[in-house]
Amino acid sequence: MKPDQIARLLAQAIREGIYEPGASLIQEDLASRFQVSRSPIREALRMLSAEGLITMPPGGQGATVRMLTRDELTEIYDLRLLIEPSMAGAIVSRATPSQIDELRRLDEQMRTAADVGSWMRLNFSFHEYIYAIADRPHTTGIVTSLLGLSQPYSQHNIGHLGGREKATSEHTLMIAAISDHNESELSRLITEHLTGARTRLLDSMPEAQESDPLAILRR
Question: Which CATH class is domain 70-204?
Answer without folding.
Answer: mainly alpha
